[in-house]
Design goal:
This protein is mainly α. It has 3 domains: 91 residues, Fumarase/aspartase (N-terminal domain) (Fumarase C, Chain B, domain 1, Orthogonal Bundle), CATH 1.10.275.10; 219 residues, Up-down Bundle (Fumarase C, Chain A, domain 2); 96 residues, Ribonucleotide Reductase Protein R1, domain 1. It is 60% helix and 5% strand. It has 18 helices and 6 strands. The strands form 3 sheets. Strands 1-2 form a two-stranded antiparallel sheet. It has a two-stranded parallel ribbon with strand order 3-4. Helix 4 packs across helix 5, helix 6 runs antiparallel to helix 18 and helix 7 runs antiparallel to helix 10. The longest helix has 37 residues. It is elongated and about 100 Å long. The chain binds arginine (ARG). The site of arginine (ARG) has 9 residues, from helix 6. Arginine binds next to helix 6.
Length: 463
């Protein structure tokens, strides 16, 4: 039986000399993977219950181990557990403590399993519950966006392409674009859970085991759908880690896009939104400043999440099967990704709750840049039976004229318009009204007020 006394490591029968102090200090992962303690204990309890059911260990031993594990869980959650770097990781720290609590019978716990299957079982369970946490925060964010959109259905602003004024839109419609994005993100995270739902426990180091274990039993106990199919693939696979960080990267990218746009709109050049004092910071030298630091934080953190994705891709690139120490850093990147994204979701929510549109400025900007030109072209097609290309050309001539005269389209008089297109009558003037323009986009998914109202309702029902 494994001896584990007086600070000796589990393998010190074989490896007689002490591991380099330096490596013990640096190569351990306990500070990172202690976060998995609950999942590790859950997995261990399921494992010993299975061992008992299969008559591999006795009832008495099973109970002793479960008692010890539950005690350890309490100790850790009450901060009364002493983690030791010498025992590398959470698995060995718990096993070591189990020996202290129940004695030599702790040595049965690791029958028919390895840390290789143990660690990914823990990590998969952790990702499952953390995905739910992320999605909860995404729901909160979605609710805030919906609230802001609802208040701004009739707030008119220019929609941009190439950052140039394009066509008039509702600010509410713009916000609803982010509802779409974050809803896709939620779904992407949920879809990952489907792929991740295979139980690694029981494949042992890489071959499976000669013990008569029941993997379906632990699968059910731990809430997985099936056991994994191939022992070698199981301990080598970190696709589920990539899926998680990839989904987080897309979500972060969405956050960075809204952050960047709001930073621009908050700039003195645009001045389309105001951020309340709660979500700005000052300058150490310029007394007048109110800087959108929180939004910049969000934009920057996206780089950290992408970095995690590429770290994991690079760790896996060309890595032979099956387990290598290289894989230990999967947890570092997963935890960092989770923390970063979770903070960003909360911060974005906070910013949106402290943001107000400068409706006058939005309208003023929408009134420049000839944003109703496309409406005019459409009008010519519908009312004067022109092809769209001819109408487009006529409208471009009208825009040129307006530009030459230093006027807005609606400031041209009918005689000026008629010079370019004689068929035009006074009726055309209504086309230049921004509210009409926005409301005319009533095709499914368009920016008309009615459409926005329906979409807000649809998403509110979902949440
Ligand atoms: N702490 C290790 C990790 O996170 C557990 C697996 C160790 N397995 C091994 N063969 N050294 O990857």
């Amino acid at each position: 039986m494994t001896k584990n006394k007086n600070n000796q490591t589990i393998w010190n029968t074989r490896i007689k000399n002490k591991t380099s102090n330096l490596f013990q200090k640096i190569g351990n992962s306990i500070d990172i993977d202690k976060r998995l303690y609950k999942e590790d204990i859950l997995g261990s309890i399921a494992h010993v219950e299975m061992l008992f059911k299969q008559r591999i260990i006795s009832f008495k031993i099973k109970n002793k181990i479960v008692y010890g594990l539950n005690k350890i869980e309490k100790e850790i959650s009450k901060n009364k557990f002493e983690f030791n770097k010498k025992y590398e990781d959470i698995h060995m720290n718990i096993e070591k403590r189990l020996f202290e609590i129940i004695g030599e019978e702790a040595g049965y716990l690791h029958t028919a399993r390895s840390r290789n299957d143990q660690v990914i079982t823990d990590l998969k369970i952790w990702i499952k519950s953390s995905t739910k946490d992320l999605n909860k925060n995404m729901d909160k964010l979605l609710k805030s966006i919906l609230k802001l959109a609802d208040k701004n259905i009739e707030t008119l602003m220019p929609g941009f392409t190439h950052l140039k004024n394009a066509q008039a839109v509702s600010f509410g419609h713009y916000l609803m674009a982010y509802v779409e994005m974050f809803s896709r993100d939620k779904k992407r995270f949920e879809n990952n859970l489907e792929n991740l739902n295979e139980n690694p426990l029981g494949v042992s180091a890489l071959t499976g085991t000669s013990f008569n274990i029941d993997r379906n039993y632990t699968t059910k106990k731990l809430g997985f759908k099936n056991p994994t199919n191939n022992s070698i693939d199981t301990v080598s696979d970190r696709d589920f880690v990539l899926d998680f960080i990839f989904s987080a990267s897309i979500c972060s990218m969405h956050i960075s896009r809204i952050a960047e746009e709001l930073i621009l709109w908050n700039s003195d050049g645009y001045n389309l939104i105001t951020l309340s004092d709660k979500v700005v910071t000052g300058s150490s030298i310029m007394p007048q400043k109110k800087n959108p630091d929180l939004l910049e934080y969000l934009r920057g953190k996206t780089g950290i999440v992408y970095g995690n994705l590429f770290s994991m891709f690079t760790i896996l690139k060309g890595l032979p099967l099956s387990y290598f120490k290289d894989l230990q850093d999967d947890k570092l990147v997963v935890f960092n990704t989770f923390d970063t994204l979770n903070n960003c979701l909360k911060i974005l929510d906070e910013v949106l709750k402290n943001l107000s549109p400068n409706k006058k400025k939005m309208l003023e900007l929408a009134r420049s840049g000839y944003v109703t030109a496309t409406d005019l072209a459409d009008y010519l097609v519908k009312n004067h039976s022109m092809t769209f290309r001819n109408a487009y050309k006529k409208t471009a001539e009208i825009v040129n004229l307006a530009e030459k005269k230093g006027k807005k389209l609606e400031e041209l008089n009918i005689l000026e318009l008629k010079k370019i297109e004689p068929k035009l009558t006074n009726e055309v003037m209504k086309i230049f009204n921004l509210k009409n323009s926005v409301n005319s986009k009533s095709s499914y998914g368009g920016t008309s007020f009615d459409n926005i109202k329906k979409m807000i309702l649809k998403y509110r029902k979902k949440l």
